[in-house]
Amino acid sequence: MLDNPKQIFGWVMYDWANSAYVTTIVVAVLPAYFASVVVPSEGLKFAGTYYSATSIWGLMVSVSAFFVFLFAPILGAISDFSAAKKKFMMVFCYTGSLAAILLFFCGQGDILATIFLFIIAQIGFVAANIFYDAFLPQIASENKLDWISGKGFAFGYVGGGVQFAIALLLIAKHATFGLSAEFAARLAMLMAALWWGGFALITFFTLKEAPPTESLPAAYRRIPKWRAYTEIGILRTVATVRKVKKFNHLLRFLIAYLIYNNGIQTVMAMATIYGTQELGFSNAVLMGTLLAIQFISVAGALGFSKLAERVSTKTALIFTLVGWSIVVIYAYFLTSSVEYFVMGAIVGLVQGGSQSLSRSFYGSIVPVHASAEFYGFYSVFNKGSAIFGPLAFSAIGHFTGNARTAILSLIIFFIVGLILLFLVDVEKAREAKNSIIFKRQAF
Fold this sequence. Notes:
The protein has a two-stranded antiparallel sheet with strand order 1-2. The protein has 16 helices and two strands. It has one domain: MFS general substrate transporter like domains (Growth Hormone, Chain: A). The radius of gyration is 21 Å and the shape is globular. Helix content is 78%, strand content 1%. It is mainly alpha-helical. One of its GO terms (cellular component) is plasma membrane.
């Protein structure tokens, strides 16, 4: 099954499918639509205080991440035991896609409906990615992890970019098509949601999962399966938490990842709304920059994957964090649309590299037989990043009244994460994954 071209193609096509949701809905259209159409100009009043669309958006991203934060490792443990990664992936994929489709019906003043549907869509997107990522060490040999992970992200950037280009044309030429700007934005989001669910079918028809190697213990056969699997998932998660702390370098990487990914996730989630409200750039500037980022990120993902083969995954990853530090410093000072585009080009390069290398580096230090469970923990740290980063950005922006200060503050995440990454001993981390401590015990 390792390095099988058909399996790899099926796997990377899910990146092609779900990236349309991220690019068009999460990053580009919905933040601007939420700020300019759904939320009144004065903001949302709660407990006597008005909150801007920017602050609400950061909170929405944080809440959705928190739900996955709670359940990801347990779901991963269940899917490892039952060999049901693909089933879980399908359920969350189509739950998220359906919620994203229903965003089409949200208009002016539909604040609560938009918040609810976006949170459900985000939960579906993030949870499905746990099981998607968990397939990586099961389809790629160790010396191919960086390249295949980078290939997945490259497919994602191209797929998301193509769909976003169509959406951008629809929005920019809405009058030519006889549509209002508001309806064109809603239609663009609908197309992205359908793209996600539609192209995911290629993955689900092509990607194969090995049959389970374990059966339910006798003690669990007398209770409903859902309860048995849940109990086993919880027990295994607790057991792994107790054991994983003994693997210092794997844990050290996860903490480093949690910290530096705070900055990455926040820049990606807040870039469009930052350009809209703080910098006052037109939609044409914002959307054009985002489209360029998509295709530049292809070069970033594949280029840094090749660099990793020459200098090591860890070193190449460190280079990307230096690049992210440059991004937030540059963002603090920029004033023109040309500067914004230049910033976008840098983002594209380091985004592609940091995302693909983080995933492949982690895949090389986790036990293959428990990949979904460990990618569940990866998702906890990943989406923990999406809780604290946007929350910090929203809080700093709210109390200082200046989003530039908020964006500059993100450099702390990159510097601290970079220092911790330096302290990870790669060889010891990879040796530890084969330790008998991770071998499953019978119930």
